[in-house]
Each structure stands twice: as C-alpha cells, then as structure tokens.
C-alpha cells in the first residue's frame, strides 16, 4: 500500500531501466527515455525551465527500448508520437516492472508497466500504463 505522501518519494527514486531477473527472450535491459511529443492537450505549463526547445503543443512522452545481451538494441517497443490528453500532462515517467511469456510455438511477448506522474487536483498523481509487444 502506497500512502499519498509517498508518491513524490517514489517519483524521486524512479528507474529509467530494468534488467529482467529471468528472461528466455534474450532481453538484458529495458530502457525508458523521456521525450517531447505532440499533444492533444496544452501541457506547456507543466514544463520546467530545463526543457529544451519549443514546448507549445507538446507534452512529455516516452520511448521504451529492449536491449539484448550484447548491449545493442533489439527493438523499440514503444515511442510516443502524440501524447493523449487522458495522460493529464505528464511530469515524468519511470519503469515499475516487466514480465515475459513465450507461448508454445509462438513468438515471445513482453509486458512493461510504466509509471506516469502528473499534477493532480490535490497534488502528485501516479498512474500505470501497460506496454505490450512481441520481442522478435
């Protein structure tokens, strides 16, 4: 159980990469990068001064990359082109956990839970996005 005042602390210690503890799919690391993407909502007020470039019509999005045992990228699992307004102008993202599964005779799949932090009505808000995809 996470108390409301723990959300800011969770955001501060958030992870930008995960190493699956057991993986039969050849993934050594899942890496998250925060990127600027087009937005259906005006999120320009959610950026601090550290953001580079023009932020009008933009929101903070993310890219998930799967890396192999050799350290080279296997696949970009997800990359935001447009951030939907339902994400409520994200302030940051981080990785929570991942799961892999290989059905008999089929390509392996991966599920990555991404935490999305935004400013809610009464303070920080933390929600989860599940990103899924085939590995090969």
List keywords for this structure.
136 residues, 3-stranded antiparallel β-sheet, single chain, 5-stranded mixed β-sheet
Helix and strand arrangement:
Elements: H1 7-12, E1 17-18, E2 27-39, E3 58-68, E4 73-79, E5 82-83, E6 90-101, E7 109-120, E8 123-134
Parallel strand pairs: 2-5
Antiparallel strand pairs: 1-2, 2-3, 3-4, 6-7, 7-8
Textual characterization of the structure:
- The chain contains one helix and eight strands; from the N terminus they run αββββββββ.
- With 136 residues, the chain is mainly beta.
- It has one domain (4-134).
- The strands form two sheets. Strands 1, 2, 3, 4 and 5 form a five-stranded mixed sheet that branches.
- The radius of gyration is 16 Å and the shape is elongated.
- It starts with 6 loop residues before the first helix and ends with a strand.
- The model has no long low-confidence stretch (mean pLDDT 83).
């Amino acid at each position: 159980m996470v108390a409301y005042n723990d959300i800011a602390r969770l955001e501060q210690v958030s992870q930008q990469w995960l190493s699956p503890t057991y993986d039969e799919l050849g993934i050594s690391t899942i890496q998250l990068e925060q990127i600027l993407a087009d937005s259906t909502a005006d999120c320009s007020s959610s950026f601090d001064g550290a953001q580079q470039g023009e932020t009008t019509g933009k929101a903070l999005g993310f890219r998930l990359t799967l890396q192999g045992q050799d350290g080279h990228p296997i696949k970009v699992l997800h990359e935001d082109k447009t951030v939907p307004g339902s994400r409520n102008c994200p302030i940051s993202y981080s990785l929570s956990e991942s799961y892999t599964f290989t059905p008999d005779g089929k390509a392996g799949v991966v599920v990555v839970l991404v935490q999305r932090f935004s400013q809610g009505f009464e303070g920080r808000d933390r929600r989860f996005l599940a990103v899924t995809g085939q590995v090969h």
